[in-house]
Amino acid sequence: MSEHHQPTTDDVAAMYDRLTDLFVQALGGSIHLGYWDPPEDRTPIATAAARLTALVGERLAAAPGDRLLDIGCGTGLPALQLSRALDATVTGITLSTRQRDLALATARQHPHPDRVDFQLADAMHLPFADASFDGAWAIESLLHMSDPGAALREAARVVRPGGRLVIADVCLRTSPAGDAEHAVDATARIFQVARFLPVAAYEPMLTGAG
Length: 210
Hints:
Elements: H1 9-27, H2 45-60, E1 67-71, H3 77-86, E2 89-94, H4 97-107, E3 116-120, E4 133-139, H5 148-158, E5 159-168, H6 179-190, H7 202-209
Parallel strand pairs: 1-2, 1-4, 2-3, 4-5
Helix pairs in contact: 2-3, 5-7
């Protein structure tokens, strides 16, 4: 992928402040993509998005009462879904004031509103003490970060030893060329993506972050 504008945290925040309501209408509530299997699966995107959230929850292997961190919480629906499913306390962070406000409004309808909280925070500079959480997840948020390695190091710092971090990101399966490369670059500019990484890039980043 060719070099393009690297978004700042302010760029990402402004984009989500401006477009979150549109994403909610288009995607059915959550603003991440869904999980379809097999490819001919025609499940509606809102259901597929909840399915992806559920898969993330399965891989967390959290215990009742665990404290979990949602890195890039969007509208808060994944945090609310997994708080109920896992009987856990969840803190969600976002750069977007609009997303934070939507998430807090939705949380008031949660059966246990004291179990969910949403804050404005930068994943590359988390405002939490070491080992504050039993687990964490990041759904389609690392791709916005100018230094995803820093975000992973911060996740390693705030999650207790033995806790799990689960990542669901939009990745490159092959290196795009020609029209495909132009399309990928245009998508990155529109949606303030720092870079789309190949799957193989994640293991060394995770190892380097501890």
